[in-house]
Fold:
Amino acid sequence: MEKFITRKSTFEDKNQIFNLYKKVSKQVGGLARSFDEITESYVENFINKSHKNGLQLVIQNPLNNSIVAEIHCYKLEPKIFEHILSELTIVVNPDFQSQGLGKIIFQSLLDKVSSERKDILRIELIARESNLKAIRFYQKLGFVIEGRFEKRIKSNNKNFEADIPMVWFNKNYFTCLP
Structure:
């Protein structure tokens, strides 16, 4: 089997990323957003924010160069949060899951922040409390649980569940004081 290629995204990847999100959103628990919420403007928005002040990586299938995984995060707007990358989202094509691609792309993101983004102290994500597999995965990568947002997710018309905020700290963070 040929090696998958991890790289920074480009604006030219937009259509493939859009199609990947549409495919993943069809899976139960694949994304917080539903299929009809995945729009071209939604994808274009997070690509623009990631390129402006965050990071976005993709994994290409070496057989046909199609994008089979994507991860992104970016800074929030208020300047007081300039040391944080947030809104982290990761997707892996269902046909390529359980092959370690999620770990590869996630570790690549953390490695790039450690080596290239010393201005970033924290990477934040939020996991649904019922997604224990994801929570354990994030913990293995070095994320820690910071609390609970009770009854934040409306699972259906009758049930709610908590969101679990998690954080990873960049050990190579530095601050430049004026």
The chain has one domain: 5-169.
